[in-house]
Write a structure and sequence with these properties.
Rossmann fold; 13 strands; 7-stranded parallel beta sheet; globular; 6-stranded parallel beta sheet
Length: 343
Amino acid sequence: MICFCWSQLPYYAANCIGAFVRQTNERVVVVATRPKVPIRGMEQAASCEIKWLSSESDSRDIISLTGEMPRALFVSGWAIPIFNHYRDAVRADGGKVYAMSDGNSASWLVAMIRSIRFRLMYRSKYDGFFVPGKSGCRLFQMFGVDASRIASGLYSADPLVFHGEVPLVKRGKRMVFVGRFEPVKNVLALCDAFRMVSGEKQGWRLELYGCGSLKNKLLAGHGIYIRDFLQPRELSEVYRSARVFVLPSIREPWGLVVHEAALSGCVLLLSDCIGAADDFVGVHNGVRFNPRKVSDIACAMQKVFTMTDTELELAQQESLQKSSQISPRAFVEGANRLLTLQK
């Protein structure tokens, strides 16, 4: 039996696990805590049993949850004590454990400190490491992990849901943000930047979709619209009608929403703290900025506001091309590579 342990299981993870389940004859079980956002249809997406923990302090052991000891365990990170108990139990029984991590490269000094801690405390406790993309591979190699023990493909949006055939030049002047309304997402600075460049006067609108503690502090008006959290299929329609996707986070290990937007053909306006930018921003389809300077965000906005029809066409082609390289199939390939590596 193969088990995936996931904290706050997101819908895209359930969808990727479902792709894995459909290509194996082996029993697969998911053990997870529930996500903070109200996603529906999780069990159907995963195509297997999901054992929901009441909280991260739930004390039930792995066998009482799944009915048997897994031969292989994929576990999200190493910060959750109950998952670490599962890890130790599986390894003690002779099974293999793979850490799923979305960390990306930080500053050189921070990375070196983290590297020392990782080598002392964690590296020997896992048989392999599963990461989303290039930034994760780079980080774990910096941590001293051999490249053969690292697989990418951990995260993926669903290309059957998110796709972008409508040409950007035929879409309205819409810029969208999708995510939590929390300080780490830098949404207040985003709105300040939009007002600074007089986005509404240039015919643009900024739409923010999500939920969170800052919702009541976000001021609508002057071309800014605050919207509620949407289910994936509803959200895909929003992306397909937008020219630009913006994510101004001051910390973003990877950023699944970037893949959703790239699959939808959007121009990508991203902070330089976003791990997924390494996978999806190319020569034509994106602008990166310093999220801690409102003026820098505003300058980046102005660049995408003035893109020509030809530039928009090239941007869409590049977003679609780069996003096609990551999919649930890549998740399946990455998981299987780690499983095969240890045989």
